[in-house]
Amino acid sequence: MKDSVQDFLHYLLVERGLADNTIQSYKRDLYQYLDYIHNHEHIEDWTLVTRQMITQYLYALKDKGRQATTLARQTASIRSFHRFLIREGVTSHDPSDQVGVPKTERKLPKVLSMNDVERLLTAPDLATPIGMRDKAMLEVLYATGLRVSELVQLNAEDLHLTLGFLRCIGKGNKERIVPLGGHAVRAVENYLSEAKPFLLKKKNNDALFVNHRGERLTRQGFWKILKKLALEAGIQKTITPHTLRHSFATHLLENGADLRAVQEMLGHADISTTQIYTHVTKHRLKDVYSTYHPRA
C-alpha cells in the first residue's frame, strides 16, 4: 500500500510537475490516511477500502479538532489518490467518490494599509548591503505580488529592468511575465550594483537575492527578515510573507484594476481565487464608511 502512495507522489512530481511544497502536503495527508487505514481498519489492500472507512477517518480528524480547511484538503488528497489508483489499474472502484467535502468558511486575507506598506518599505537601512537587499526584496514583492517561494527562486537573468518586467515560474511549473514598477527597478539596480557583489564575496551565484554568506536566500530566511523589519517599522498587525501579496492585489483592485489582469499577475489558475480580493475591498469600504460617516 505504501508503494502505491510513493508511485502517486512520483506521478505528481514527474507528470504533473507540481511544486515540492505541494507534493510534501500530499505526502503528509496520504501517509496519515494510510496509517489510519492500516492500523485502525486493519486493511492491507486498497481494493478493500470503503466509503465508510474514509468517512470515519475524516470524523476522527474532526474529533481531534482539525479545522474544516484541513478536512477539505485531506478529502481532496484522498480523492486524487484513489482516482490515480483506478487509472493505474490498482483498483476498479473509487470509495472516495461520494465522500462529501466539508464546507469551509473563506476567511478574508489580511492586508496592510497603504501607510503601513510605506512604513515597511522604508524600514531597511540603505547604508548597508543587507538593507539594500531587503529594500529590493520588499519592493519587488509589493510591485509584483509574487509568492515568497517565487521570489527566492528568481535568478538575475529573470529580470529585464530596462523594459520593466520579470519572468517567474509559479505553481505547476507555469511561467508568467509580471510588470515591475519604477521604485522596484531602482531598488534592484542599487542592490545589484552596490550590495550583491559585497554579499557574494567573489562567489558565483545565479540567484537574484543572496544571504550574507553569498548563498541563495531561503523562504525561512526571508520570513525572519520580514518579521524583523515589521517590528522596526512599528507595524502592529500580524504579518506573514503572503501579506504583501494580498496587499498588492487588494490595492490594485481598490484603484480600479481589472480582475482578469490581477488574476494573471498573481498566477491564479481560477479567477474565483482572485475574486476573494473584491470581498476584501468591499469589507474595507464598509469599515471606512462606518468610521467616518457622521450618520453611520
TrEMBL record:
GO terms for molecular function: DNA binding; tyrosine-based site-specific recombinase activity. GO terms for cellular component: cytoplasm. Residues 1-86 form the Core-binding (CB) domain. Keywords: Cell cycle, Cell division, Chromosome partition, Cytoplasm, DNA integration, DNA recombination, DNA-binding. The active site is at R147, K171, H242, R245, H268, Y277 (o-(3'-phospho-dna)-tyrosine intermediate). The keyword Cell wall biogenesis/degradation does not apply. Residues 107-290 form the Tyr recombinase domain. It comes from the Bacteria. It is found in: Cytoplasm. GO terms for biological process: cell division; chromosome segregation; DNA transposition. Pfam families: Phage_int_SAM_1 (PF02899), Phage_integrase (PF00589). Site-specific tyrosine recombinase, which acts by catalyzing the cutting and rejoining of the recombining DNA molecules. The XerC-XerD complex is essential to convert dimers of the bacterial chromosome into monomers to permit their segregation at cell division. It also contributes to the segregational stability of plasmids. HAMAP family: Recomb_XerC_XerD, Recomb_XerD. Belongs to the 'phage' integrase family. XerC subfamily. Belongs to the 'phage' integrase family. XerD subfamily. Forms a cyclic heterotetrameric complex composed of two molecules of XerC and two molecules of XerD. NCBIfam families: PRK00283.1, recomb_XerA_Arch, recomb_XerC, recomb_XerD. This is Tyrosine recombinase XerD. It comes from Pullulanibacillus pueri.
